[in-house]
C-alpha cells in the first residue's frame, strides 16, 4: 500500500534529534498498549491483517498526528473489532464509565497467560532455507514497478532501481499475500544493495549504499 | 515539545483522552476475561528489566575479545547470540554487520519500526519517527552529523533498511585506548546508538 507510512526519502519532517526522542515511551499507558497488542497476538484475539498492515490503513493525516503508541492503540482496537472480540461502542462505553468514576472491572489474573507470552517472546523461529533462488549473488536485479493496493514490504523509493544481489537471506511467505490469507507462496528473500545515485541521483553527500531485503516477486532481471 | 517538528515525539490530542481509551480497552479485555493484568505486567517488565541494549553490549564486547565468537556472530547472528542466552521475537534472523576503517553501517526501518528487540530492547522514539525513517536512506551524513558523528568522506556508509524478516545489529570497531580493558569494562563503551550505527564507541564515555 502506497501510504504515508512509506517514508523513505521524503522531505519536510525536520530534525531527527529532538526533545523527547530518547525514550521508547513516556507514559505508562504506552507500555501497556505495547504489551496488550503483543498479548492480543499471542492469544489470537485480533483479525488479519495484523498490527503493521492495519496501521498502514490509517488516514494519513491521523497517522502523522498520532504518536507511535497511539497508532498501536488504533490498530489493536481495529483488529479486535474486526475479529468480533469486542463490539462497536464498547470501548466508548467503558471510557464513559471510567471517566464517570464507575467501577473498574475486577482484576483478572492468569499466570499461565503471562508465562505463555514470555515463552512466545523468547521463541526463535528462523526463516526457511531458500530453494531454487532465481537470482545469484553478484547479479544485477531491478525492482519491479508496482502500485500495490494492499500491504507490501517493497518501499516506493527502490522501485525501478537496479541493485546488486549480495546474498540469499532465506525464504518466507510473501507478506503482500500472507497478511491476508493462509496460503501465500514462500519465496526467497535477497539482500540487495543499491548505490545512492541509483536511488536519488547525484547529491551533495559522497555516494553511499542502501541495502534492503527483498522478496523474489519484487525483482526482475536487469540487463 | 516542539510543535513544528514534533510529529512523533508527542501527540496533539489530550493525553488524558488517549490514556483513558487505552485504560478502557484494557479494562474491557479484563472484564471479558481475555487479557490478564499480570500478563501485561510480565511483558512490560521483560523489556524494562531484562531486555535492553545491555544485551547487545554483551554481544559486542564478546566479539571484541573473542575472535572465534566474532567469526560466528558475523556468519550467523541469531545462532551466535544464543550462545549468550539471547534471542527471540525480532531477532529470529539476526544479521550482525561489522564496521571497519572503510565501512560504517547504520540501521533504519523506513516502513515501520523493525528493530532487534532481544539485543537492543525497544527502539527510542526517534528511531520510529518520520524524520529518521525519511532521511536516513536519503541523506545519511546529514543525519549522522545531527548525532554528532562526522565520518571521513572515504568511509563508505551502508544503510540497512530492515524491510523483511532480517534484523540488524551493528558491531562497532573497538575504540583506540580500549586495548587493555576486560570484557566487562568494554561493555560500558557500547551504547545503544553504537549498535544502531548513529554513534561510535568512545573511551571515557558515556
Verbal overview:
The complex is a heterodimer of chains A (223) and B (206). Chain A is an alpha+beta fold and 223 residues long. Chain A has two domains: 28-122, Cyclin A, domain 1, CATH 1.10.472; 140-221, SH3 type barrels, CATH 2.30.30. Chain A has eight helices and five strands, in the order H-H-H-H-H-H-E-E-H-E-H-E-E. Chain A has helices at 28-42, 50-55, 60-65, 68-83, 90-99, 111-122, 175-178, 196-200, and strands at residues 140-143, 162-173, 186-195, 209-215, 219-221. A five-stranded antiparallel sheet of chain A has the order 4-3-2-1-5. Chain A is globular, with a radius of gyration of 21 Å. The mean pLDDT of chain A is 96. Chain B has two domains: 15-47, no CATH class; 52-196, Nitrile hydratase alpha /Thiocyanate hydrolase gamma (Nitrile Hydratase, Chain A), CATH 3.90.330.10. Helix content of chain B is 44%, strand content 11%. Chain B has a two-stranded parallel ribbon. The chains are: A alpha+beta (223), B mainly alpha (206).
Which features does this protein show?
heterodimer, A: 223 residues, alpha+beta, Cyclin A, domain 1, SH3 type barrels, 2 domains, 5-stranded antiparallel beta sheet, 8 helices, 16% strand, globular, B: 206 residues, mainly alpha, Nitrile Hydratase, Chain A, two-stranded parallel ribbon, two-stranded parallel sheet, 11 helices, 44% helix, 11% strand, disordered N terminus
- Label the overall shape of chain A: globular
Task: Please give the alpha-carbon distance between the first and last residues of chain A.
Answer: 28 Å
What's the architecture of the largest domain in chain B, going by CATH?
Alpha-Beta Complex
Helical content class of chain B: 40-55%
CATH class of the largest domain in chain A: Mainly Alpha
CATH class of the largest domain in chain B: Alpha Beta
Briefly note the CATH topology name of the largest domain in chain A. Cyclin A, domain 1
Amino acid at each position: 500500500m502506497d501510504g504515508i507510512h512509506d517514508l523513505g526519502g521524503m522531505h519536510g519532517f525536520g530534525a531527527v534529534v529532538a526533545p523527547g526522542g530518547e525514550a521508547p515511551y513516556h507514559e505508562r499507558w504506552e507500555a501497556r498498549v505495547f504489551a496488550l497488542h503483543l498479548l492480543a497476538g499471542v492469544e489470537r484475539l485480533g483479525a488479519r491483517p495484523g498490527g503493521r498492515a492495519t496501521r498502514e490503513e490509517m488516514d494519513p493525516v491521523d497517522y502523522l498526528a498520532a504518536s507511535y503508541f497511539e497508532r498501536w492503540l488504533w490498530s489493536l482496537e481495529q483488529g479486535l473489532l474486526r475479529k468480533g472480540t469486542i463490539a462497536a461502542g464498547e470501548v466508548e462505553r467503558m471510557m464513559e464509565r471510567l471517566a464517570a468514576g464507575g467501577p473498574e472491572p475486577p482484576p483478572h489474573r492468569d499466570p499461565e497467560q503471562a508465562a505463555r507470552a514470555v515463552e512466545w517472546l523468547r521463541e526463535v523461529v528462523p526463516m526457511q532455507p531458500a530453494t531454487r533462488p532465481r537470482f545469484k549473488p553478484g547479479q544485477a536485479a531491478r525492482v519491479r514497478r508496482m502500485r500495490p493496493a494492499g500491504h507490501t514490504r517493497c518501499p516506493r523509493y527502490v522501485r525501478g532501481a537496479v541493485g546488486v544481489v549480495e546474498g540469499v537471506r532465506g525464504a518466507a511467505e510473501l507478506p503482500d499475500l500472507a497478511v491476508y490469507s493462509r496460503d501465500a507462496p514462500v519465496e526467497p528473500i535477497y539482500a540487495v544493495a543499491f548505490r545512492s545515485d541509483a536511488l536519488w541521483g547525484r547529491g551533495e553527500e559522497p555516494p553511499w549504499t542502501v541495502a534492503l531485503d527483498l522478496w523474489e516477486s519484487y525483482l526482475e532481471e536487469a540487463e | 515539545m516542539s510543535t513544528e517538528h514534533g510529529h512523533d515525539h508527542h501527540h496533539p490530542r489530550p493525553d488524558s483522552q488517549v490514556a483513558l481509551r487505552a485504560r478502557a480497552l484494557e479494562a474491557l479485555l479484563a472484564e471479558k476475561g481475555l487479557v490478564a493484568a499480570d500478563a501485561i505486567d510480565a511483558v512490560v517488565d521483560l523489556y524494562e528489566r531484562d531486555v535492553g541494549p545491555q544485551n547487545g553490549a554483551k554481544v559486542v564486547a564478546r566479539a571484541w575479545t573473542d575472535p572465534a565468537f566474532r567469526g560466528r556472530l558475523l556468519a550467523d547472528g541469531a545462532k551466535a547470540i544464543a550462545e549468550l542466552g539471547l534471542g527471540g521475537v525480532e531477532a529470529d534472523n539476526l544479521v550482525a554487520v561489522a564496521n571497519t576503517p572503510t565501512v560504517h553501517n547504520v540501521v533504519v526501518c523506513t516502513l515501520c519500526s523493525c528493530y532487534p528487540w532481544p539485543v537492543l530492547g525497544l527502539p527510542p522514539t526517534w528511531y520510529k519517527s518520520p524524520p529518521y525513517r525519511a532521511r536516513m536512506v536519503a541523506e545519511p551524513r546529514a543525519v549522522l552529523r545531527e548525532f554528532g558523528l562526522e565520518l571521513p568522506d572515504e568511509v563508505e556508509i551502508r544503510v540497512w533498511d530492515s524491510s523483511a524478516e532480517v534484523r540488524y545489529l551493528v558491531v562497532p570497531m573497538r575504540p583506540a585506548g580500549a586495548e587493555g580493558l576486560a570484557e566487562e569494562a568494554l561493555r560500558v563503551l557500547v551504547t545503544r546508538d553504537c549498535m544502531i550505527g548513529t554513534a561510535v564507541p568512545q573511551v571515557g564515555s558515556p
